[in-house]
Design brief:
single chain; mainly alpha; Four Helix Bundle (Hemerythrin (Met), subunit A); 80% helix; elongated; transmembrane helix
C-alpha cells in the first residue's frame, strides 16, 4: 500500500514533533537523574539548562503552534478525499518545516533567523493557498 504526499507530510510532521519532544524529555531526564535539576525546577523556555535546550524548546513550540493550521489542512484534505489540493505542496511544506526547525536548533544568527522567517512565510503562503482552494472547492 502506498501513501499519498499529504498523508506522508502529516505523518512526517507528527514524527518531527515526537522527535523534538523526545529530545526535550531526554535532556530534562538526564538533568534530573544526574541531580543537576529537580524535576519540578525547569524553566519552560529551556534556557535554564543550556542555549541549545532553549532553542529546542522554541523549535518544538513553533511546531505545535503551527500544527493546527498545517496539520488541520492536511487532515481536511485526507478526510474529504481532496488531497489533489494538498499533494503537490505537502512535501515541500514539510521540508520547509523540518529545515526551519533544524536551523533553529543550530543557530540564532541574523542570517539564520532571516532564513527561518522565509521558510515560515513559505509555510503560511502554502496554507493560505490551500485554504483558498478548499474554499473554492467546498463553497463553490
Amino acid at each position: 500500500m502506498t501513501m499519498n504526499p499529504t498523508g506522508l507530510a502529516l505523518i512526517g510532521y507528527i514524527a518531527w514533533l515526537l522527535l523534538l519532544v523526545t529530545m526535550l524529555v531526554l535532556i530534562r531526564a538526564t538533568c534530573t537523574l544526574t541531580g543537576k535539576k529537580a524535576a519540578n525546577d525547569f524553566n519552560p523556555n529551556g534556557l535554564d539548562v543550556s542555549p541549545f535546550s532553549g532553542r529546542l524548546c522554541r523549535a518544538h513550540a513553533n511546531c505545535y503552534e503551527s500544527f493546527p493550521f498545517i496539520g488541520g489542512l492536511l487532515m481536511v484534505a485526507l478526510a474529504t478525499d481532496a488531497t489533489r489540493i494538498t499533494d503537490g505542496l505537502a512535501l515541500p511544506l514539510l521540508a520547509a518545516r523540518l529545515t526551519q526547525s533544524s536551523i533553529h536548533l543550530i543557530s540564532t544568527s541574523e542570517l539564520a533567523v532571516t532564513v527561518r522567517f522565509i521558510l515560515f512565510f513559505t509555510q503560511i503562503a502554502i496554507c493560505l493557498w490551500w485554504s483558498w482552494r478548499f474554499a473554492v472547492l467546498f463553497l463553490g
